[in-house]
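This protein record is not my work; I was only asked to verify it. Take the sequence as given and treat only the tokens as open to question. I have pasted the whole thing underneath without changing anything:
***
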Amino acid sequence: MNTEPQEIVLEEADVETVAKWLTTGEALLVDVRETSEFEQEHIPGAMLVPLSVLDPDTFPRIHIKKLVMHCAIGKRSAAAAKMLIKAGHTPPINMIGGLKAWREADLETEIFDEPPAMPEQKPVLAKDCIKPSDIPPGDILLSDFIKPLGLTQEELASDVGLPVSHIAAIVDADRHIDADTAFRLARYFSTSEEFWLNLQMAYDLEQAKKRSGDEIARTITPRKDKGSVSGISVA
């Protein structure tokens, strides 16, 4: 019996089709980029729900309109759409090429001309759970930041004060994004530090789940199911 999970096949639409849907009121457009990215430039009428805080359990269930997800180039929005599908939502539509394709089609955007403010720092709450993801952070760095901005890995490394080998290893998924690197990337790209750390943690969780999730579930019993332990007092 085949127990392998089936690959989720996303419905996609090009930017011209999405633009027509928005004009006729047929679609709701959700931007899953970070707040600082949205503030610099966004599609008029788009609703901001950053992937870093997207919770499928609390995300509204949309039935009366087409739900279209977009990001900078299409990878983060695809991940967001898969998260919603796994949680039982009506399958969203991924906008091909993201904001980059929208610009290239000479479609309207709203641009914030002033330099973006530093991201607001907020405490990480227990409810802000990290959802496992099979997308390496280096993929997001390359496809949503380096390529759209016309950077080379050498330029990025020089600008953020890291060796080229460091950036290359992250892109190739051979190196983790640590706190120092997260601070450097956040400052350079005007995102939050948590965005980069959350990407890394989500990927690490998925890898750990694949490696040992079944064994852990089979061999470790949750403490709450073991009952009380005599002689031990919990403050």
